[in-house]
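Researcher: I'm preparing a figure for a lab meeting and need a structural model of a single chain. I don't have an experimental structure, so a prediction will have to do for now. The sequence is pasted below. Please return the structure as tokens so I can convert it later.
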Amino acid sequence: MVLSKTQRIAGVSFAAVALILFFVFKPSALPVDSGDVQRGPLEITLDAEGVTRVNDRFIIAAPVTGKLVRTKFEEGDSVRKGMMVAAILPPELNTREYREASAKAASARAVYDEAIARERRAMLNFAQAERHSGRYRRLYSEGAVSKEVFEVADNETGVLKKEVEAARSGVKGAQFNFEALQAMVDGKISGKPVSVVSPVDGRILKIHEKSERVINAGSPIVDIGDPSAIEIVLDVLSSDAVRVQPGNRVVIRDWGGEKELQGAVKTIDPAAFTKISALGIEEKRVNIIAVLKEYEPLLGDNFRIQAKIVLREAAHVLQVPVSSLFRGKDEWHLFVIENGKAVERKVKLGMRGTFQAEVLAGVKEGEKVVVHPTNVLTNGMRVKAQE
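Model: Understood. Here is the structure written out token by token.
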């Protein structure tokens, strides 16, 4: 059948219009962010905030109530074991207090003398009873006295021996009481300061009381420790603390220095504590104690730091960005970019870090995946990858 010229022109025009409509209404490729499937090191970390503290910190407190003499030390000064770090002058007694204390000491002295007299009397009675017992023992062996008479004399000796022991204990108790009361009187009126010495070699970390004033017994005066023995205290959620093990690597950052510091977990506290979060929520948190591998002189006591605890790590694993993953019905899925189209695949994951996740099956090294896939993206849709 031979088409006329008019029919041929109409057919060409229809094909041209159809082609134009196809390109006009053809959906454009969806622009998407992309990432690479690559091999490299992967770490599973736990971020935490904490502070530094000196290990084996000694808080020196006032042994007596009195006036603290102004100290000449400054924070950071070195001290040696046995060196006096503070002096406390006990308050002097007024007339009424002195008379009262002196009377108590005199009363204790009288009780002490009375206890000595009782001891001497008990010793004399015991010595006499021993002689009687020895005499009755000889008479009983000769048959001159009955067994009952001998046993009475022997029992009386045993009773008097116990009285001597009790009298000796009474003498010691009275002596200690008298010496304590007398020392109180002598110390209050002597005017000699009580020395507070350092128990260890170290440096003064903090001076609680520097100026001269009256303080009570037990009040903290100075803190002493070794600044080179620094440990890190990190508090984390109790649900995260169960994943931490002693020996885990710790990376300290944002502490003020230019380099990151390396450390290791020393211990995990066995008990949690309650802390109010910034949102006003009560949280159960646990302290993780870490130690530095190398001493850092710029890092002092009670410095704020940021750290990450490395829970697991691998040197060479196949991985994809975590942001490319989404949950399917029962498995993890992602979109792989193939020939300009997004192809949905199931993947099997291993370790999962903050930004990267290990892939055990489902993708190959070098492939590109869609990062942050949107809800409009479907399997087979044309996409335009953007780095």
